[in-house]
Amino acid sequence: MENKSPKTVGTKEGLGAGITALGVVYILLPSLSAQIAAGKNDTLVSILTGALWVFGVFTVLAGIAVMVAKFDDN
After folding, report:
1. What is the dihedral of CA 8, 66, 23, 18, to 10 degrees?
2. Closest among 59, 62, 58, 56 to 33, alpha carbons compared
3. Three-class SS of residue 28?
4. Which of 44, 30, 57, 26 has its CA nearest to residue 65?
5. Quick one: what percent of the chain has pLDDT higher than 70?
6. Is residue 19 within 8 Å of residue 59, measured between CB atoms?
7. Does some domain include residue 5?
8. 41 φ, ψ (degrees, to nearest 5)
9. 40: CB partners within 8 A, 6+ apart
10. Which long-range contacts (CB under 8 A, 24 or more apart) does 64-71 make?
11. CA neighbours closer than 13 Å in the CB half-sphere of residue 66
């Protein structure tokens, strides 16, 4: 029978959670920017919103990939 240490949350999971949280901030940022830019050109806000949604989705996916990835713990 193998002596395996209990599964704990480590730096890899913490890094993944931090990256995922950064992606959520990217996704929420356009709503805050729209309030700041009230009365400004709506086209620029739309471009900002679209770009940050794309960055946010990719960043969230990257964070999830880091958490799920199997790394050698040696």
Report:
1. 40
2. 56
3. helix
4. 57
5. 74
6. yes
7. no
8. -65, 120
9. none
10. 64/16, 64/20, 65/16, 66/12, 66/15, 66/16, 66/19, 67/12, 67/13, 67/16, 67/17, 67/20, 68/16, 69/12, 71/12
11. 18
Radius of gyration of the chain (CA): 18
**Domain span holding position 61:** 13-68
Q: Tell me the pTM.
A: 0.68
Domain membership flag for residue 8: no
Dihedral of CA atoms 34, 35, 41, 47 in degrees, nearest 10, equals -10
Residue with the bigger pLDDT between 65 and 6: it is 65
Residue 29 located in a structural domain? yes
Q: Which residue type is seen at 66?
A: V
d(CA 8, CA 64): 17
Number of structural domains (the chain) is 1
Look at residue 38 and give its three-state secondary structure.
coil
